[in-house]
Amino acid sequence: MTSSIIIPMITPHKKGRLDLEALEGLLEYASLNSFDGAFAASSTGGCASLSYKRHLEVLGEVVKMSPGIKLFANISRNDLEETLDMMKDAEDIGYENLVIINPYYHRYSQESMRKYFSDIASGTHESLYLYNNPSLTGLTVSPETVASLSSEHSSIRGIKDSGGDLDRFSDFLQIPGLEVYQGKDHLLEESVRMGAYGGVCSTSNFSLNTLHVAHDSGDVSPYTEKIRKVTEIMKKHEVPAFHNYLFRKFVLGEKSPSDYMNSPFSDLPNPPGDQELLDLL
Description:
- The protein has helices spanning 20-32, 52-65, 80-93, 110-121, 134-137, 143-152, 166-173, 188-194, 209-215, 221-234, 241-250, 274-278; strands at 4-8, 13-14, 17-18, 37-40, 70-74, 97-101, 127-132, 156-161, 179-182, 198-200.
- The chain is α/β, with parallel strands linked by helices and 281 residues long.
- The chain has a single domain (4-220), classed as Aldolase class I (TIM Barrel, Alpha-Beta Barrel).
- The strands form two sheets. The protein has an eight-stranded parallel barrel, surrounded by six helices.
- Helix 2 runs parallel beside helix 3, helix 4 packs parallel to helix 6 and helix 9 runs antiparallel to helix 10 (221-234).
- The radius of gyration is 18 Å and the shape is globular.
C-alpha cells in the first residue's frame, strides 16, 4: 500500500515578514508533486520562534492559498490556555487536522503530559495528532501514555514520532486504529516496511526522495541513501535555516538566497556547495 508523505512546511520569511510569495510557491510545489499533505507552523517551520500573531498568520495564509491538499495545523503553544485558544482559532479558520506536541523545557511526568493532551483532546471534535520529538522537547511521550489517550479520546487519530527509536516506533504501531507517521527521514523506508501510515519528513521541503520511498514500487534504497547523506550534511548547519536555503535555491530557483530567516535565526552562513547537493536531491 502506498504510504502518505506530509511536508512539515518551512515558514518562509523575507526581511522579517512572512514571505507570502514563497509560501504560495511551497504549496504549489506540494500540489504539483502530489504530496499527500502539508503541515503548517511545524518544527521545521520554526514554530517555537513564532509569536501567537505570526503563528496564526501562517495558519491563515496556508488555508487561503491551499491548492486542495490535506492540511495539518500545529496548535502547540506550550501554555495550555494559549494552546486551546490556538486550537479554536485553527478550527475557525477551517483546519480539520490538528497537531500537538507535549509541553517542553520543564521536566514533565508522563501523567502531566497525559493530562495536558487529554485536556486538549477533550476540547475538539477535529482529528488530533500527537507529536513525539524528544530531541527538541527533552521528553519522550511513551507508547503507554499514547495508548491510554487513544482509548479515551476518539479525536486522537495518530502520532508523528521523531524519536528515532524503531523499537518504540513499533510499540506505537501496535496501538489499535492509530495512524503512525515517521518523523526521521532516514528511517522512512524501514518504517513503511513495518507498517507506518507514512512520514512527516523535513527534507520534503526541497527534495522528492521521501516521496519516492513512500510512493514507488521496487527498490527504493538509492533514495534512502540519498536521504541519509543529506541528513548528515544537515547536522552541520542550523535548522531550519538549512531547509529554507535549499527550498529557495532548488525549488524557487533563487541564485543567492538572502534575508530569508526570522529572528532569532540567521541566514545559513556557509551553505553547502550546489554540486554536492544536486547529486542528492
